[in-house]
Write a structure and sequence with these properties.
The complex is a heterodimer of chains A (307) and B (308). With 307 residues, chain A is mostly helical. Chain A is built from 13 helices and no strands. In chain A, 73% of the residues lie in helices and 0% in strands. In chain A, helix 3 packs across helix 13 and helix 9 packs antiparallel against helix 10. Chain A is flat. Classes of the chains: A mainly alpha (307), B mainly alpha (308). The interface between A and B is large, with 95 and 99 residues.
Chain lengths: 307, 308
């Protein structure tokens, strides 16, 4: 093939391919008009999403910014909105999320290693596990709450404690952690593994010293995003019976607890306007935590792509 | 041969301890992967056990055949239809919002947008996807509902429309990103063929790209619907806890998920009928979404095979 026949490079590389300028006059006016109109419509759809996002953030800041103060962070729940604070909920969220990470991350990564690395011959069982994980990822979060209620709270008699919440949350984010870790492991070039194995390393040595380090940024990004999901989840914890009116900070894994999203839910449902302001302020705190985690994930992703 | 074998034997001699270690690690990793099966089995087992106990007291005919739901007030009535219509209203309403908007955003991002514009616009959807559902609930209750009330006269404080709108916004990023994946997977040669025949971008998109990506788009729609059915906090806050057989979006309703929340918030003792109802509702919820997810995953798989 002679290279001169190829179209100029820009036409190939850009996602945008237009009808060449010199042909355009041949198209009837209405076809050009509808083409532009359709493009504008599609842009509008995205713009609506953008406007909604900006308005959502704006309305929350407008309602809640005034309530953010040291008192708000240091206070326990109260029946008077001006004296109430997020201390208990914030600490509860930290407890649950930290425990969830400790439980779910090693399990998720190990499962991903099994599915991607140890099983080069795909058998029926592995296919089944893989399909099952994909389907579990779509199960509504409240169903995990019901599972946690029956298994952890009642059957294992862990009561409505931090550990019950963390176990329930772990099951919820496990499929996501497995799936993202698998993606990260898939992205490691096969030649890394082959070179290591050829030098006499065992399978596990290859995984630990070659595959995991090069997949680490990807896995970490996935983990952080899964954990941010756990921070924002409310429904499963309500189902297992995390309550809203608790005036002590969790001391150990058997303590009763509440979390930030539940506190927001509860304050939003109250009739007094002062509590709505509290809810908005608590949302700002929640979003700030999520923003922090997501920036970390983006940073890691950038580091991964630079390498 | 003589050169190779000594080094080989040395290697395998060191390997016996390694082998045991390797085997243990393999076993541990396998067990972690197998937990997922345990979870599925647990969900099915637990839900069906409690649901079974529920159905031993309340007949199937009453559950699916009558139209009044009042499990907390005597005389108790267990007709599930008000919860189903409530859920359906939210689901259909949110799909009506999210599917067109999501598909069009996806078309814009994959077909129209300049790579630089994409890099700026795509994060909007990612941020929307990352916002916790309870935040959407707050937004619905204190921003969308007042807006609706200022336009329409008879809108209640808790209403189905507000819930449907906010769930629509919530699932929009999901629809959009899955549709975009489907659209970008369509081979470039198909587009170029159409451009070569003189089609405009709109014609290429609507007559070539979207039809070619249709099974992927369908999968996106199904997954979005499944998400909308399972959505809990936003609809509980926006649409209320009033199980009522109605199709009026201005009225307060209760979805299946909101009912589970309502019961869980109270301290319902183990083994009571009220306690078992949330599992009966939960099993309905799980079965519906699971079937939808399996269907969507099949579609995606078939779609991938076509363009692999």
């Amino acid at each position: 093939m002679s290279t001169s026949l190829k179209p100029p490079k820009e036409t190939i590389s850009a996602a945008v391919i237009e009808v060449p300028e010199e042909l355009r006059w041949q198209l009837p006016f209405w076809r050009r008009f509808f083409n532009k109109l359709f493009g504008a419509f599609c842009f509008t759809a995205l713009a609506i999403a953008g406007v909604l996002l900006v308005y959502l953030l704006f309305s929350i800041f407008r309602d809640g910014f005034g309530r953010l103060s040291q008192q708000f962070f240091e206070s326990f729940p109260s029946s008077r909105p001006q004296r109430a604070g997020v201390k208990v909920a914030l600490m509860g969220s930290l407890w649950v999320v930290a425990l969830t990470a400790i439980i779910a991350v090693p399990m998720g990564v190990a499962a991903a290693i099994y599915l991607e690395e140890f099983n080069t011959k795909r058998n029926k069982l592995v296919e089944f596990i893989q399909l099952n994980i994909a389907n579990l990822a779509g199960v509504p979060s409240i169903v995990y709450g019901l599972l946690g209620l029956a298994v952890f709270v009642r059957w294992m008699a862990l009561d409505r404690s931090v550990i019950s919440g963390a176990l329930t949350m772990s099951l919820l984010i496990l499929p996501t952690i497995i799936l993202v870790s698998q993606e990260a492991l898939k992205a490691v070039p096969k030649s890394y593994r082959e070179a290591s194995l050829a030098l006499g390393a065992t399978k596990w040595q290859t995984i630990r010293r070659q595959v995991l380090p090069s997949a680490a940024p990807g896995i970490l990004t996935g983990i952080i995003l899964s954990i941010s999901r756990a921070i924002g989840e409310t429904a499963p914890l309500i189902t297992i019976g995390a309550v809203t009116y608790i005036n002590f900070v969790p001391k150990d894994v058997k303590s009763r607890f509440t979390v930030l999203p539940i506190q927001i839910f509860e304050w939003s449902g109250r009739p007094q306007k002062g509590f709505h302001e509290n809810a908005a302020a608590a949302i700002i705190v929640l979003l700030a935590v999520l923003l922090l985690m997501n920036s970390l994930a983006i940073l890691l992703r950038q580091r991964a792509t630079r390498r | 041969m003589a050169v190779v074998s000594p080094s080989f034997s040395r290697y395998s001699g060191r390997g016996s301890r390694n082998k045991a270690k390797e085997w243990i690690i393999l076993a541990v990793c396998f067990l972690c992967a197998a937990v997922s099966i345990l979870v599925t089995a647990g969900i099915i087992g637990v839900l069906s056990r409690e649901a079974f106990m529920f159905f031993s007291k309340v007949s199937f005919g009453e559950f699916f055949g009558t139209t009044e739901w009042s499990p907390l007030v005597k005389p108790q009535k267990f007709g599930v239809w008000p919860l189903v219509t409530g859920t359906l209203m939210i689901t259909i309403g949110s799909a009506l919002i999210a599917v067109p908007l999501g598909l069009m955003s996806a078309i814009y991002l994959s077909e129209y947008a300049h790579p630089k514009a994409r890099a700026v616009l795509k994060p909007i959807l990612e941020v929307l996807a990352g916002i916790p559902t309870v935040v959407y609930g707050y937004f619905a209750l204190f921003t969308i509902t007042p807006a609706l009330q200022s336009v329409f006269k008879n809108v209640q404080v808790y209403n189905a429309a507000s819930g449907a709108i906010v769930v629509g916004v919530m699932i929009l990023p999901l629809v959009s990103s899955l549709c975009e994946d489907a659209l970008t997977a369509v081979p470039k040669a198909l587009r170029e063929g159409a451009y070569g025949l003189g089609a405009t971008k709109m014609e290429v998109t609507m007559k070539i790209v979207v039809p070619s990506a249709l099974s992927g788009i369908m999968a996106a729609v199904i997954l979005a619907i499944s998400r909308a059915i399972g959505e809990t906090m936003a609809v509980t806050l926006a649409s209320g806890m009033n199980p009522k057989l109605t199709l009026n979006p201005a009225e307060s309703i209760q979805t299946m998920t909101a009912y589970i929340v309502q019961i869980s918030k109270g301290d319902t003792p183990n083994g009571t009928l009220e306690f078992q109802t949330i599992f009966a509702v939960g099993v309905t919820l799980f079965a519906t979404t699971y079937v939808l997810n399996v269907l969507a995953n099949r579609l995606v798989k078939r779609f991938r095979q076509v363009y692999a």
